[in-house]
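$ run holo --ligand "zinc ion" --emit tokens
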Amino acid sequence: MPASTTNAHAIHGAISRLNDPHYTRWASQIRRSGGCRQPIHLRGKVEHWDTATGTLLHRYSTRLEPDGVLRVPCKTRRASRCPSCAEVYRADTYHLIRTGLVGGKGVPESVTAHPCLFVTLTAPPFGAVHTRRERNGKMLPCHPRRDAQVCPHGIVPSCTARHQPNAESLGEPLCPGCYDYTGSVLFNALAPLLWKRFTDALRRHLAKSGDLTLRDMREQLTVAFAKVAEYQRRGVVHFHAVIRLDGPSGPGLDPPGWATADVLAQAVQHAADAVTATTPAAAGTSARVLRWGREIDVRPITLRGDLTEQAVAGYIAKYATKAAECVGTLDRRIVPTEDLALLPVREHARCLIAECLRLGAISGLAGLRLIHWAHMLGFGGHFSTRSRRFSITLGDIRADRAEHARTEAVSTGRLLLFDEDTALVVSDWHYAGRGFTPGDALLAASITKGSVSSPGDGGGV
Ligand SMILES: [Zn+2]
Ligand SMILES: [Zn+2]
Ligand SMILES: [Zn+2]
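-- output --
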């Protein structure tokens, strides 16, 4: 924790918490919330009633808890909001993806033999940006153009630098005046629709390869996928996806012999090339046809090849905990009346946010909700999604954990074991706030080994 946040106010708060007679109970709440940076405060009660006799078997109320509240983990997936809860989400996502690739927990191991690809769909270019280029392990100059003409903004669109991996300029346009901010923002807004059309087209292409109608193909084959959105430095999303072929009822049955990894790869390429999404024409902007970029990466996932199932699961899980803040924008909504000049973001992100607010105010484009998603640079889709039968679900993993916690609580005598048929459970919970006071944050950090920081330190991954 930075020394500047350890101020007199925080120390005073920490001392009064330590002197509170309920301190031990408070500390145990904090330990159980696993280092959550912004725990949710709940007020309420749970009662177990015997349905046969009408007697109260057990009663728990937060009335006797410290400050009258129970502190539970926020469970965010976003590492910028709460590193420890995001870590739980990351680990769960990792297990979920890996189970979908190698089996286990009810998914048969024979799933490893199913055709399975790791596919990256990118956005098209919206103008030259500073970039790191490598070929055969050798760094190349960023954007060298010997015969480049000076643009209308007086800039020569050429850059011969070999940028460092963390260079500030990476992803920034060579000329912001020439950069197509409109296209970038609209692409982000339509990316979920493009993805939907891609999956539809993929199924159509597969059916064609098998000489089947779509309806007949469903009797033989299903397409399972898990995808995650990642922001490129230039502020557009691209998608990484695991795409797998299964038999008609999911991973338990093999797909037909004709549905090979090669057939799947061809169908992916065809579908990605074929689909488009058109933005509505509106005052001052004409309709635009958007499509995926030409850089489509399709690689087989193998147990012992270049791209292993661990690598893929790790990759997907990592991006599942990130959002647009990775490109230096904000992790909160923006109101149109805000002074954008004051936002603590990169200049490029500021221009993208401004373009979201400008386009969002045009009535014909209202359906894209660009003002609502300005802080996400126009993207309003899900970051991490799976098709129904890809693997086990996050819910399954969480239920497993809850069951484990319950069993432990019962075996250690902290929870009474009731027969569910004879006990009526009445619970009543209310949200009563979240987070820590500066003093509590200080103590929580020492209890959970520094994984908690005080409010107002700006977050950060
Ligand atoms: Zn949390
Ligand atoms: Zn450059
Ligand atoms: Zn220019």
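-- notes --
The longest strand covers residues 423-434.
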